[in-house]
């Protein structure tokens, strides 16, 4: 079981994340490349951060399923948003998934950065991840 926590010596988290996450022995770490808001057919989910973020998390669900694990195995996420105007939509969509994935608030470690641009101008959100997969 991944342990996620905020030590009492640290300032409280200011969002949906834990300061620390520890992976127990017997797990492989799998690094998920940045996922963008592109549907399985290759089309963009929509022009806005909300639609793209929902699609990013749908893509994460498919990738986790391919590994035989679920969101509880996410150790860390790193979100990049191309402009402050996209932060609210990204957070709203993430909040919906996190409410379903982590109803008890046991969120993974997570960072969010506002960047000048992503790989293509129509992309406004990209999220990378680290997953702990039990060794078989």
Describe this protein's structure:
With 136 residues, the protein is α+β, with helices and mostly antiparallel strands. 25% of the residues lie in helices and 29% in strands. The protein has one domain: 60s Ribosomal Protein L30, Chain: A (2-Layer Sandwich). It has helices at residues 49-67, 87-101, and strands at residues 3-5, 20-22, 27-36, 74-81, 109-114, 125-134. The strands form 2 sheets. The protein has a 4-stranded mixed sheet. The chain has a two-stranded antiparallel sheet with strand order 1-2. Helix 1 packs parallel to helix 2 (87-101).
Q: Outline of this structure?
A:
By secondary structure, the chain is an alpha+beta fold. 25% of the residues lie in helices and 29% in strands.
List the main descriptive attributes of the protein structure presented here.
136 residues; alpha+beta; four-stranded mixed β-sheet; 2 helices; globular
In the CATH hierarchy, the third-tier topology is known as: 60s Ribosomal Protein L30, Chain: A
Instruction: State the CATH architecture.
Output: 2-Layer Sandwich
Strand order of the largest sheet: 3-6-4-5
What is the helix tally? 2
The low-confidence runs, each spanning 5 or more residues with pLDDT under 50, are none
Number of strands: 6
Query: What's the name of the CATH homologous superfamily?
Result: RutC-like
Oligomer: single chain
Structural class: alpha+beta
In N-to-C order, the SSE pattern is: EEEHEHEE
Quick one: overall form? Answer: globular
From the N-terminal CA to the C-terminal CA, the straight-line distance is: 15 Å
Our estimate of the beta-strand percent is 25-35%
Main pleated-sheet profile: 4 strands, mixed
């Amino acid at each position: 079981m991944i342990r996620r926590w905020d030590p009492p010596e640290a300032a409280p988290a200011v969002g949906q994340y834990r300061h620390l996450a520890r992976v127990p022995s017997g797990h492989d770490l799998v690094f998920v490349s940045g996922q963008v808001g592109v549907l399985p057919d290759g089309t963009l989910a929509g022009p806005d951060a909300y639609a793209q973020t929902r699609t990013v998390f749908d893509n994460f669900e498919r990738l986790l399923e391919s590994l035989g694990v679920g969101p509880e195995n996410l150790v860390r996420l790193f979100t990049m948003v191309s402009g402050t105007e996209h932060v609210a939509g990204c957070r709203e969509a993430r909040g919906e998934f996190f409410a379903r994935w982590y109803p008890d608030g046991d969120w993974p470690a997570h960072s969010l950065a506002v960047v000048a641009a992503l790989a293509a101008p129509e992309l406004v959100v990209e999220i990378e991840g680290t997953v702990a997969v039990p060794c078989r």
